[in-house]
Amino acid sequence: MTVIGAFAPGRVNLIGEHTDYNLGFALPIALELGTTVTFTPDGSAAITAVSDSETASSVIPLTTAPGGVTGWGAYVAGCVWVLGEAGIAVPGGRLEVSSDVPVGAGLSSSAALECAVLLALTSAADGPVPDRIALAKLAQRAENHYVGAPTGLLDQLASLCAEPDAALLVDFQSLDLTTVPADFGDCYRLLVIDSRAPHRHADGEYAARRSVCAAAAAELGLDSLRDAAPDDWRRLVDPVQAARARHVITENARVVDAADALRASDYARFGALMNASHISMRDDFAITTDQIDLIACTAAAMGAIGARMTGGGFGGSVIALASAEAAERIIADLPTAVVDARFNEPTVRAVRPGAGAHLL
Ligand code: GLA
């Protein structure tokens, strides 16, 4: 039988956090780091998934339903389940997974796994492969309803639709995707600084932010905060709702500005928007941690022109845009500075916008 290989990258969101489920804007890139799956159909009634980073394999009946498989295999099982629900019959077989996306770093290792699995399994199924936006929605459905994480569509769209040397401007209301060239020129480096801090209460806090945003929109008589006017947050009596709404409203505006700055190669402007985004996540959306704030602040003190947390928050990674010279300083000195402040030692890596998911 034919062996099918598929690769899907992790992602870094350049700007636009917690805007996806508010139907706003975000500007992610795909990473060159990603997940590769190799699927060998064998005509059996189950998929046996093995991973190079897990000791236990996961046996997934083709008739699996939410709750059936737990642990890392739930991401694969969720994909099998959504495809079944969508009427796409996938064969049984052996699925081998390998990945170099660090888990828990806020770089979407889970979306990379889902997207690679969906690409491989839909290619093995009879019939046409769904388009990329449809695949992203299937991956999100797997994560929301099978794995049980109430995340938006950002990670999956970035993994499936991003292009090399470009960022992807996503409008989550229309689902219009616009490619924005983003090679950062010869002089600048994009660094990803993984805090390596354990996520605490992350799922509960993420869901809590989501419901406060929904409540704020309802209070304003809107379907989503995307439709809020710049000053609408002032109409909210509840101070927490007002602060959360202000983050979403201002963050949407920053994303659009940042895409323009990138098109104009105006990195100083882009960096300033990154800094403003971090402050908004820290003060209005309350999703940063002391260590994350210290990393962003230290990167800026070492010469980064922009530094902000990326991803869902409560840990994960900070991204920094810096001149080649400042980047070298940050790579050499930032980890020690963070350890001296009695936090976990972060890892720093320079990244470039990589290719979206593809068959191998
Ligand atoms: C996580 C979620 C995304 C998005 C970001 C925050 O990565 O999976 O859907 O909400 O957080 O921007």
What does this structure look like?
The chain is of the alpha+beta class and 360 residues long. The protein folds into two domains: 4-180, Ribosomal Protein S5, domain 2; 182-351, Alpha-Beta Plaits. Helices cover 39% and strands 22% of the residues. The protein contains nine helices and 13 strands. The strands form three sheets. The chain has a six-stranded mixed beta sheet with strand order 5-4-6-3-1-13, with helices on one face. A four-stranded antiparallel beta sheet has the order 10-11-9-12. A hairpin with a 6-residue loop joins strand 4 and strand 5 (58-61). Helix 1 (73-85) crosses helix 3, helix 3 (132-147) runs antiparallel to helix 4 (154-161) and helix 8 (290-301) packs across helix 9 (324-340). The longest helix has 25 residues, at 239-263. The two termini are 16 Å apart. 52% of the residues are buried. Bound molecules: alpha-D-galactopyranose (GLA). The site of alpha-D-galactopyranose has 11 residues, from helix 4.
